[in-house]
Amino acid sequence: MNYRKIRMAIFAIFITLCTASVQAQVQIRLPYPKFERPSVPDNLTQEAEINDWMAKHYWDKFNFLNTENLKNPELTFPIITNYIGQLNTIPNSMASIYLKETLQKAKTNEEVYDHMANAFNDILGNTRSPYRNDEYLIAVLEDLLSVKNLSETDKNRYELSLTMAKKNRVDSIATNIGFIDTSSKSDSLHSIKAEIILLMFYSPGCHACEIAEARLKQSEIINNWLDSGDLKVLAYAPEANEEDWKKYQSHIPDSWINGYDPDQSVWNQRLYDIQGFPTIYLLDENKRVILKDVGINDVEKYLMQLAMSLPGM
């Protein structure tokens, strides 16, 4: 008897059974459909066209009619957030169009639309979200307001958010605001002469403001721009009273412009979308908004890129 052949046959059967067992484990059915990204066509080779195609077709394999998709714990993070990241690779104008097209597809299922639209609203409108984007948020809020039988509560909430998102948008001229400076003189935002203006809304004694102030003081790139005279910082206290503002003056560097609003009109009239302190804007010499409600890292990145693009760099 050829024992060697018998052993080989038994070993082959063992391997087959193990492989089948592994495959059975891998193929365990999820309680929700798996999300799949479509494959980019081979004829697309340029990065810009690939990014545009993926932003437009990101949801092609997603069945909006299937409510089972809502059971997927990854639907919001990372599926929706990855989609926002994909939109960020293309121009805002096209991104807003594709976002609205996605929401229209989602409307084929009320539950799916409600989940996705409100997830977009929360992610894009949250000041602490790294995906904060007013232009996308406006597209989402306009779509939410187009829904029939919207409750009065939701309607009022979305309308207020939309109004605030549209204030002082990127590429628009920032609303002029007056203030009293440390010399007790009246001044205004639009009278400040500088190539770049960093406008920081703060509240005296605010812990997050103190952290931001320390970061700004320590930032090499920001201080280089300040020393050159091409950048000016306006620290603006919109809701502080004069007494609290004066007590806090020693925390603000003399090289900054420090002002408060005695009428608190900026705060009470909601002239700016201030959802918390500090709120930072970056403006150009014409007071056009470059960056809205951003972190110091974003400011540093922009200033570094601008410096590198200047002649002689």
What features would you highlight for this structure?
about 325 residues; single chain; alpha/beta
What is the secondary structure topology, with strand pairs?
Elements: H1 3-26, H2 47-57, H3 75-87, H4 92-106, H5 110-125, H6 134-144, H7 152-165, E1 178-181, E2 186-188, E3 196-201, H8 207-218, H9 220-228, E4 231-237, H10 242-247, E5 257-260, H11 265-268, E6 279-284, E7 289-292, H12 296-309
Parallel strand pairs: 3-4, 4-5
Antiparallel strand pairs: 1-2, 1-5, 3-6, 6-7
Structure characterization notes:
Helices cover 48% and strands 11% of the residues. The chain is an alpha/beta fold and 313 residues long. It is built from twelve helices and seven strands.
Counting DSSP H or I runs of 4 or more residues, the number of helices is 12
Please state how the strands of the largest beta sheet are arranged side by side.
2-1-5-4-3-6-7
Between the first and last Cα atoms, what is the distance in angstroms? 84 Å
User: By helix and strand content, what is the structural category?
Assistant: alpha/beta
What is the ordering of alpha helices and beta strands? HHHHHHHEEEHHEHEHEEH
Biggest beta-sheet profile: 7 strands, mixed
Mean pLDDT: 91
Beta strands, count: 7
Give the overall form. globular
Helix content: 40-55%
**Rg calc:** 27 Å
Q: Unreliable stretches, pLDDT < 50, 5 or more residues? A: 6-15, 19-27
Strand portion, in percent? 5-15%
